């Protein structure tokens, strides 16, 4: 593989332990003139008035710009276009992160609000239920509803115990089994003619 100015720059950058780089550091690292470093920083969209740049900025922008410029036929305009696209993507990613954080925060807040409302409503539920039942019974709809329910249960195919329970048949059986045997016999005697 042919060694290029970019590969030299990349190797020097990787071997460096510095966390910040001045323009002079970038000149030394890349072997470029101060004007070329300035033009590269400008094409990257980095603030040329800054005195130093973070390792991340140098790697993400400056070195990437020098990689593009190392390609025959590519110029600063190509770097600006590439960095503009990269910057737009970075801005969109940041916006999505903020929106995701906002959504999570909003979800938590709504959940807490719902929980508070439920706690407040719960203490009024018994009174509301009694009031609703009273209003329903006053209109006569309750008897009609129970009758309709009984009819639908009779038509439904439930296992016998459940159907008996829902239709009230088991109430007589349970009552009879709860009586002492003597009373049961007396009841049978009175039932027979």
Structure description:
It is a single chain. By secondary structure, the protein is mainly alpha-helical. Helices cover 78% and strands 3% of the residues. It is built from ten helices and two strands; from the N terminus they run H-E-H-H-E-H-H-H-H-H-H-H. The chain has helices spanning 5-15, 23-30, 34-44, 55-69, 76-122, 125-138, 141-155, 160-167, 169-178, 181-191; strands at 20-22, 52-54. The longest helix is centred in the middle third of the chain and has 47 residues, at 76-122. The model is unreliable at 171-179 (pLDDT under 50).
Secondary structure: number of strands? 2
Overall structural class, as computed from helix and strand content, comes to mainly alpha
- Helix % is over 70%
Cα radius of gyration in angstroms: 42 Å
The largest sheet, given as strand count, sense and whether it forms a barrel, is: 2 strands, antiparallel
Strand content: under 5%
Give the low-pLDDT segments.
171-179
The residue-averaged pLDDT reads: 76
- For the biggest β-sheet, the strand order reads 1-2
Count of runs of 4 or more consecutive helical residues: 10
Please give the alpha-carbon distance between the first and last residues: 117 Å
SSE string, helix = H, strand = E? HEHHEHHHHHHH
The general outline is rod-shaped
Please sum up the structure shown:
It is built from 10 helices and 2 strands. The protein is mainly alpha-helical. Among the domains are: 5-90, no CATH class; 158-193, no CATH class.
